[in-house]
């Protein structure tokens, strides 16, 4: 069992004295990120909702990136992936990332196509 | 195992007891289960994305659906889900603290942290049940057209949503709910809506301040991202398409918009809620094992670490559900 913990987060810029302190530190960080998400979700600044980045609202990109950041810290620090061997980490992380990216690409592309068929084709559905 | 082998370098590769990934069998299997479960959830969420992209311009706006907080009246989008998210992250933290205390063989600390984790999980499941009840009960009510689209009502001056009861005209009819006892073929029907289609139509004609808002989302202009509101004349024309009155939500009809929206809500948050529920059950079992001193006798608390992994995974999934259902 791994009793030794790696106590640095943010690529070593923040180093904790012991594991318990690190846990609270990560909690504070996750809470901050969630708070930012909620505030943005309630106020929805027009600057962010009316600008398009790569076919999606800038605000939605921010939400997705912040979600991935949260997922990283939950799995790395709460699930101790940081302390596991890199081989286990890679097996567990890259497999779903590859499969899920593929699935998302296929499904969203197809859905966008169907959307266009509904919009431009001779199909009446919104009545 | 080969008893003559003592050092790592000379270990017999196929002799058993080898740990190339540095994790015990149980822990590794938990990881592999989590990977497969993560793929299941990704499948659901991607399917949600599929339907959403398909109905990009008519999908319900989550902020307008989830606006309630228990014990408070009024419109508070996001607040309660944010609270639920925080509860789940908090119970994740107590779980890590339990694992940490387990590494140090502090039985009492593990008991307390496991206890707090279970409480957090219970609060979350309760909140989700409340969320479901509110969603099923519904808010304002709506009309479904013959094409299956939803028409909601709004006050033309204030821009606020109007509930069906506020403008429906009271017309007495003979229509009563058919039960098994009254029908010739022992067929029964579901609960009748509070108002009939006719009452809504007459009410709309009589009240000049009520207009219809459709599912369609504005694609450009100042009101981009808002639902389209019809004028008074258009509303009176549009109401002719109405077929049934919808109050609340079930798997077939819902007053919030696209039918798929409610289906995905029930399916994804239900599946997640089931995970939380089973997580709480497993935590309770492990909690009693800790209390009885099972792991103290075993010499290590790895079992707490394994259920911890499952518990964090549930939290991890919620982070994604939160984003894709409530934020984006």
From TrEMBL, chain A:
Where does the protein principally reside?
membrane
One cellular-component annotation, GO: plasma membrane
Alphabetic keyword roster: Cell membrane, Membrane, Transmembrane, Transmembrane helix
The transmembrane residues are 23-43, 58-79, 91-109
Membrane topology of this protein: Multi-pass membrane protein
Localization recorded for this chain is: Cell membrane
**Protein name listed in UniProt:** Cytochrome C oxidase subunit IV
Q: Which organism is it from?
A: marine sediment metagenome
Lineage here is: unclassified sequences, metagenomes, ecological metagenomes
TrEMBL record, chain B:
The keyword Electron transport appears for this protein: no
State the InterPro entries in the record.
Answer: Cyt_c/ubiquinol_Oxase_su3, Cyt_c_oxidase-like_su3, Cyt_c_oxidase_su3-like_sf, Cyt_c_oxidase_su3_a-hlx
Q: What terms describe the molecular function in GO for this protein?
A: cytochrome-c oxidase activity
Q: Does the keyword Metal-binding apply?
A: no
Q: Subcellular location, in the record's words?
A: Cell membrane
**Which parts of the sequence belong to the Heme-copper oxidase subunit III family profile domain?**
1-328
* Sequence intervals crossing the membrane: 29-50, 78-98, 110-130, 264-295, 307-327
Membrane topology summary: Multi-pass membrane protein
Q: Which UniProt keywords apply?
A: Cell membrane, Membrane, Transmembrane, Transmembrane helix
Supply one GO BP term.
Answer: aerobic electron transport chain
GO cellular component annotations of the record: plasma membrane
Q: What Pfam families does its record include?
A: COX3
Similarity comment: family membership: Belongs to the cytochrome c oxidase subunit 3 family.
Q: What is this protein called?
A: Cytochrome oxidase subunit III
Organism of derivation? Pricia antarctica
């Amino acid at each position: 069992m791994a009793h030794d913990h790696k106590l640095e987060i943010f690529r070593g810029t923040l180093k904790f004295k012991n594991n318990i302190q690190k846990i609270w530190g990560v909690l504070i960080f996750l809470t901050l990120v969630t708070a930012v998400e909620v505030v943005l979700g309630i106020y929805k600044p027009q600057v962010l909702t009316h600008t398009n980045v790569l076919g999606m609202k800038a605000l939605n990109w921010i939400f997705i990136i912040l979600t991935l950041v949260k997922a990283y810290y939950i799995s790395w620090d709460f699930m101790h992936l940081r302390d596991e061997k890199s081989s286990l980490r890679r097996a567990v992380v890259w497999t779903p990332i590859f499969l899920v990216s593929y699935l998302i690409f296929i499904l969203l592309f197809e859905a966008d196509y169907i959307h266009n068929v509904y919009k431009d084709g001779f199909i009446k559905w919104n009545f | 195992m080969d008893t003559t082998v003592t050092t790592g370098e000379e270990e017999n590769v196929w002799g058993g007891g080898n740990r190339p990934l540095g994790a015990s069998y149980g822990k590794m299997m938990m990881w592999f289960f989590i990977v497969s479960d993560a793929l299941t959830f990704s499948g659901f969420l991607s399917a949600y994305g599929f339907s959403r992209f398909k109905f990009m311009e008519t999908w319900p706006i989550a902020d307008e659906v989830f606006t309630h907080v228990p014990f408070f009246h009024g419109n508070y989008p996001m607040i309660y889900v944010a609270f639920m998210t925080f509860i789940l992250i908090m119970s994740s933290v107590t779980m890590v603290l339990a694992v940490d205390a387990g590494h140090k063989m502090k039985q009492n600390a593990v008991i307390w942290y496991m206890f707090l984790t279970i409480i957090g999980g219970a609060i979350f499941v309760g909140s989700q049940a409340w969320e479901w009840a509110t969603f099923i009960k519904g808010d304002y009510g709506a009309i479904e057209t013959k094409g299956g689209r939803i028409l909601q009502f709004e006050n033309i001056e204030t821009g606020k949503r109007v509930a069906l009861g506020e403008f429906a005209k009271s017309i007495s009819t003979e229509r009563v709910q058919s039960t098994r006892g009254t029908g010739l073929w022992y067929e029964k029907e579901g609960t009748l809506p509070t108002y009939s289609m006719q009452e809504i139509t007459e009410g709309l004609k009589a009240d000049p301040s009520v207009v219809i808002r459709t599912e369609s989302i504005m694609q450009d202009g100042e009101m981009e991202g808002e639902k389209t509101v019809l004028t008074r004349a258009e509303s009176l024309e549009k109401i002719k398409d109405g077929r049934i009155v919808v109050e609340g939500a079930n798997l077939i009809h819902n007053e919030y918009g696209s039918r798929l929206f409610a289906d995905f809500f029930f399916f994804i948050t239900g599946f997640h809620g089931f995970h939380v529920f089973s997580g709480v059950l497993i935590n309770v079992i492990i909690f009693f094992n800790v209390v009885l001193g099972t792991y103290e006798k075993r010499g290590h608390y790895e079992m707490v670490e394994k259920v911890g992994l499952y518990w964090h995974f549930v939290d991890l999934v919620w982070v994604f559900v939160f984003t894709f259902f409530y934020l984006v």
